[in-house]
Amino acid sequence: MGHGSETAAAPAHCLADFERAAASVLPADVRDFVAGGSGAEVTLDANRTALDRVFLVPRVLRDVSRCTADSTLLKRPVPMPVAVAPVAYQQLVHPDGERAAARAAKAAGVPFTASTLSSVPIEELTAIGGTVWFQLYRLRDAAQSLELVRRAEDAGCEAIMLTVDVPWMGRRLRDVRNRFALPSHVRAANISTGSTAHRRHADSSAVAVHTGQAFSSATTWSSLAALRKQTRLPLLLKGVLAAEDAVRAVESGVDAVVVSNHGGRQLDGAVPSIDVLPEVAAAVNDGCEVLLDSGIRSGTDVLRALALGASGVLVGRPLIWGLAAAGEAGARRVLDLLADELRDALGLSGCDGVAAARQLRTLVPG
């Protein structure tokens, strides 16, 4: 499989440039695996539409000469309120995979979230030396799930992110039509569940078959309560869209909820994340941090999320496009651009920092 050189063929001036660059080097089925959503991709498209509907009301005559995006996530200082989202099987797009992405996150000073389905073991990612969070899918084998938590703790991960919107993988039609399967050199390095994901099926995605066999579809609030007792690490709950669930999450002792529809990859027709962010933030009422993902593609998007009540955001696909186009250098450039764009958006909106951004008014026409 081809992959990009360490410097992008053409200068990248925004995150979308990397998606175009990645398209020229990735096989079509891998590109579809990363870009695609579930069903008719209604929610995938709606995430962008909804973000673009949010207009900011800038303030003027404010001193922004010392504008900064400095903030905190899980009470730890960060140079911008951004973390790298968990994305599975990153060696699909570049031989260095998660290693390169984790080095890029370290260089940017932002947390890197390692997926249960990472193609590089947790221990190799924490050894890079940045802030690493571990994303947990609860497995049918409860002992193996607990073993993953213990491995993450022992390796030095600083938080556990439990994803709760995947009882099984959404029906991603691009993968079904491509009869998508993992190439032999890419595997789920943190779990041992055989080679199901590598065997092509006539009418399904091998990755979906594999997760259907490996993941528990019986994860409940009791499961969350048990996990809260099993680890002292900060706990994030990813995949929350209903305010009622966010309230219950706070009552269960989570440190953050991630308002997310899985980037349009699970329930097609689910509400865009940004549309429910304000009511989730209001319902949580400072009981825990509120992060947002699904569709973040610019510094302006980060500002929109902050203005609507988010503590910060997760960014996923853009890092993968940067990684595909130019390896670690591409992933670093994505995060550098995001930081530049966020500072630009802050200053132009009359905000000298993140606290002021959270006071900005927004307008959604109609």
TrEMBL record:
Record-linked CDD domains: alpha_hydroxyacid_oxid_FMN (cd02809)
Record protein name field: 2-hydroxy-acid oxidase
Going by the entry's taxonomy, the superkingdom of the source organism is recorded as: Bacteria
Q: Which molecular-function annotations from GO does this UniProt entry contain?
A: FMN binding; oxidoreductase activity, acting on CH-OH group of donors
Q: Which residues bind glyoxylate?
A: Y137, R172, S260, H262, R265
Pfam families, A to Z: FMN_dh
Question: Which keywords belong to this entry?
Answer: Flavoprotein, FMN, Oxidoreductase
Q: Which PROSITE patterns match?
A: FMN_HYDROXY_ACID_DH_1, FMN_HYDROXY_ACID_DH_2
Q: Which cofactor does it need?
A: FMN
- Positions binding FMN in this chain are P86, V87, A88, S115, Q135, T163, K238, D293, S294, G295, I296, R297, G316, R317
**Could you tell me which InterPro entries the record lists for this protein?**
Aldolase_TIM, Alpha-hydoxy_acid_DH_FMN, FMN-dep_DH, FMN_HAD, FMN_hydac_DH_AS
Return the PANTHER family for the record: 2-HYDROXYACID OXIDASE 1, S -2-HYDROXY-ACID OXIDASE-RELATED
Q: Where do the coiled-coil regions begin and end?
A: none
Q: Does the keyword Transport apply?
A: no
Q: Where is the FMN hydroxy acid dehydrogenase domain?
A: 7-366
Question: In the UniProt entry, which residues are flagged as the active site?
Answer: H262 (proton acceptor)
What does the sequence similarity comment in the record state about its family?
Answer: Belongs to the FMN-dependent alpha-hydroxy acid dehydrogenase family.
